[in-house]
C-alpha cells in the first residue's frame, strides 16, 4: 500500500496518475465510494472525505481502513492533510480532524511508502 498526503490542491492525484500509471477510471473519490467497492479500484482519492462519511454513519475509520487494506493490500490512498491551521469551532469538525489523523497514522504505519506532495513535487517520508 502507498500513502500520498499533502495539502489541498497540491497535485497529489496528478502525481499518482503519472508516477504509478493510474488512469482516471481506476481512481475512486472518497466522497463517493462505498466500502464494498474499494477493492474494485487501484486508488482512493480524498480519503479524508471517506473518513468524514464513516463518522457520519457511526463507523470507526481505523477499523474500516484496516478492512480496506486487508482486501486491497496494493491500493494507493490519497489524503489531504487537514490537521494544520486553526482549530475548528464545531465539535464534529474537531472530531473529524482527529480521526483523519488517526487513520493517517494507521495508514502510514502499514504503508510500503509515504510521500508528501507540495506544489506537485514529492518528498519521500517512508520507503
Please tell me about this protein's structure.
It is a single chain. This protein is an alpha/beta fold and 127 residues long. The chain has one domain: P-loop containing nucleotide triphosphate hydrolases (Rossmann fold), CATH 3.40.50. It has helices at 12-19, 47-56, 61-71, 91-110; strands at 2-6, 27-29, 43-45, 76-80, 113-118, 121-126. The chain has a 6-stranded mixed β-sheet with strand order 2-3-4-1-5-6, sandwiched between helices. A hairpin with a 2-residue loop joins strand 5 and strand 6 (121-126). The longest helix has 20 residues, at 91-110.
* End-to-end CA span: 11 Å
Number of strands: 6
The SSE string, one letter per element, is EHEEHHEHEE
Uncertain parts: none
Helix content: 25-40%
Q: At the fourth CATH level, what is the homologous superfamily?
A: P-loop containing nucleotide triphosphate hydrolases
- Mean pLDDT across all amino acids: 93
Structure annotation, total helices: 4
The portion of residues forming beta strands comes to 15-25%
| Outline type | globular
Main sheet overview: 6 strands, mixed
CATH architecture descriptor: 3-Layer(aba) Sandwich
Amino acid at each position: 500500500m502507498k500513502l500520498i498526503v499533502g495539502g489541498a490542491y497540491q497535485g497529489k492525484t496528478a502525481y499518482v496518475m503519472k508516477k504509478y500509471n493510474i488512469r482516471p477510471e481506476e481512481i475512486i473519490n472518497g466522497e463517493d465510494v462505498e466500502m464494498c467497492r474499494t477493492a474494485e479500484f487501484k486508488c482512493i482519492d480524498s480519503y479524508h472525505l471517506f473518513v468524514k462519511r464513516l463518522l457520519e454513519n457511526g463507523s470507526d475509520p481505523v477499523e474500516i481502513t484496516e478492512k480496506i487494506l486487508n482486501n486491497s493490500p496494493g491500493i494507493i490512498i490519497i489524503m489531504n492533510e487537514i490537521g494544520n491551521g486553526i482549530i475548528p469551532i464545531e465539535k464534529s469538525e474537531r472530531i473529524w480532524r482527529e480521526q483523519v489523523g488517526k487513520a493517517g497514522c494507521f495508514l502510514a504505519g502499514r504503508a510500503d511508502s509515504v510521500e508528501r506532495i507540495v506544489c506537485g513535487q514529492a518528498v519521500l517520508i517512508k520507503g
